[in-house]
Amino acid sequence: MLEKFTAPIGTALDRFIAQKQEQFPFATGELSQLLRDIALAAKIINREINRAGLSGIEGSVGEENVQGENQQKLDVVADVRFIRALIKGEQTCGIISEEDENLIDTKNPKAKYVVAIDPLDGSSNINVNVSVGTIFSIYRRRTSLNTPPTLEDMLQPGRDQIAAGYVLYGSSTMLVYSTGYGVNGFTYEPSLGEFFLSHPNIKMKENGEIYSFNDGLYYQTSEGIRNFIEHCRKNQYSGRYIGSLVSDFHRNMLKGGMYLYPATKKHTQGKLRLMYECNALAFLAEQAGGMAFSDKERILDIMPESLHQRVPLFIGSKNMVKQCLQLLNEEG
Ligand code: AHG
Ligand code: MN
Ligand code: MN
Ligand code: MN
């Protein structure tokens, strides 16, 4: 078992990726290249987001995506940019995206990897200048090289992720990712156009005191969920809900806390999507010492059935998630 890889604060992302690769004598460099492609896509999307108000790409497209959501122009821009970067990088044979109904064949059949993306997370915050994000999961393809990617390549349980992460476009832009040896966060330096290691080996507190829940859903949820919310209130935990999963998760990971999106009357399977929202964050949470569960199962153990499947999500500091699951189990 390899030691968790650490590097000094301020190490440039490219250098970090290269040094990490040196620890694996048989590594071919393909995953390293794919991570660089993702960092490039993040820089491009970051640029688009920063000038959205000036370049006329705020607002809605006027169409619904496959989720039945009102698609925003930036959802589409981020989707197109990200997919283009992955196609040009040539390390990905297949992509699934929140914004695309079907599996995308990148026509790089020699590539070993498939990627699942939420190109822009927190759509409802785009037009009001509140933080949004990008989420990604990387898997090794299951079918033979030199054949087109299939659903079998995409529908893998989250525990088989090779790497996962997110980009947070906030007061500063950050790339946070893990290849299974701890979680590292990099902050973007716009004048240099480079990410630098700012948050090495992130660990989540076991006992958090922040809960992130859309309170308007309170009467749409089960008794167990309401009991958990009452528990948080009685203990005077801080209620913090941005409405961008990436931002809420990031804050809770750094400060200790828990995010929950349970099943509701409207979203009977929960709202968040397993393949490109829950799995990546569950991978990071566990790598940071936290926990991620659906109603009964560990998120990373769920066998996906469809590309856009939704699941309830309880994610964050270990003891908070355990407490919540216990109250759900006790429910009448
Ligand atoms: P997306 O913008 O990628 O469709 O994701 C929206 C998600 C997530 O970011 C957020 O936590 C959640 O929707 C908020 O949902 P509610 O508005 O129902 O609280
Ligand atoms: Mn999302
Ligand atoms: Mn999205
Ligand atoms: Mn959406």
TrEMBL record:
Which cofactor does this sequence's record say it needs?
Mg(2+)
The EC designation for this entry is 3.1.3.11
Record: residues binding substrate: 121-124, 214, 241, 259-261, 271
User: Where is this protein localized, as stated in its record?
Assistant: Cytoplasm
What residues does Mg(2+) 1 bind to?
98, 118, 120
Q: Which GO terms describe its biological process?
A: fructose 1,6-bisphosphate metabolic process; fructose 6-phosphate metabolic process; fructose metabolic process; gluconeogenesis; sucrose biosynthetic process
Q: Which residues form the Fructose-1-6-bisphosphatase class I N-terminal domain?
A: 13-200
Pathway noted in the entry: Carbohydrate biosynthesis
Matching Pfam families: FBPase, FBPase_C
Broadest EC class? hydrolase
Q: How is the cofactor bound?
A: Binds 2 magnesium ions per subunit.
Which stretches make up the Fructose-1-6-bisphosphatase class 1 C-terminal domain?
204-328
Q: Which reaction does it catalyse?
A: beta-D-fructose 1,6-bisphosphate + H2O = beta-D-fructose 6-phosphate + phosphate
- Superkingdom of this protein's organism: Bacteria
- A single GO cellular-component term on record: cytosol
Q: Which UniProt keywords apply?
A: Carbohydrate metabolism, Cytoplasm, Hydrolase, Magnesium, Metal-binding
Any idea which positions bind Mg(2+) 2?
A: 118, 121, 277
GO MF: fructose 1,6-bisphosphate 1-phosphatase activity; magnesium ion binding
Q: Which family does it belong to?
A: Belongs to the FBPase class 1 family.
Subunit note: Homotetramer.
Name of the protein this chain belongs to: Fructose-1,6-bisphosphatase class 1
Provenance organism: Rapidithrix thailandica
Name of the encoding gene? fbp
